[in-house]
């Protein structure tokens, strides 16, 4: 595991799809461009906490503090763009909570951190709550090997 300095990474800037969260089967309304946001604003308050905040087709991601200093920079290497999320919670935090108020970091600056997730393949969302599941073209092929290439540096 890569050890990073304890810096208040609470701002995110990226070149990819945005400005709102998007997924392989829900990205056409999100143009590719430059976007900036606070990490906290990347979190979507769903009725039950769940993984969220994904951005598709990204070639550049940068985390900084509020002053734009101490940057952590991630650049896609090769032809395949990245998918990412930068959230104030881990996936384990989200799935352990049944309600927002159970998320310990919410409103407590002493417990704040940023969880940066980088992915080379993301499953589409589908519509299984009230319709069909994920279409095959947005599924992850279990027989395929996926490789993620990126460069990471601290500025």
UniProtKB/TrEMBL annotation:
SMART domains annotated for this entry? Bgal_small_N
Q: Identify the enzyme class.
A: hydrolase
Give one GO biological process term.
lactose catabolic process
The record lists the membrane-crossing segments as none
Return the InterPro entries for the record. Answer: B-gal_small/dom_5, Bact_Beta-galactosidase, Gal_mutarotase_sf_dom, GH-type_carb-bd
Please list the residue ranges annotated as the Beta galactosidase small chain/ domain: 1-153
Keyword Hydrolase attributed? yes
Please write the reaction equations for the catalytic activity of this protein.
Hydrolysis of terminal non-reducing beta-D-galactose residues in beta-D-galactosides
PANTHER family the record matches:
BETA-GALACTOSIDASE
Q: What is this protein called?
A: beta-galactosidase
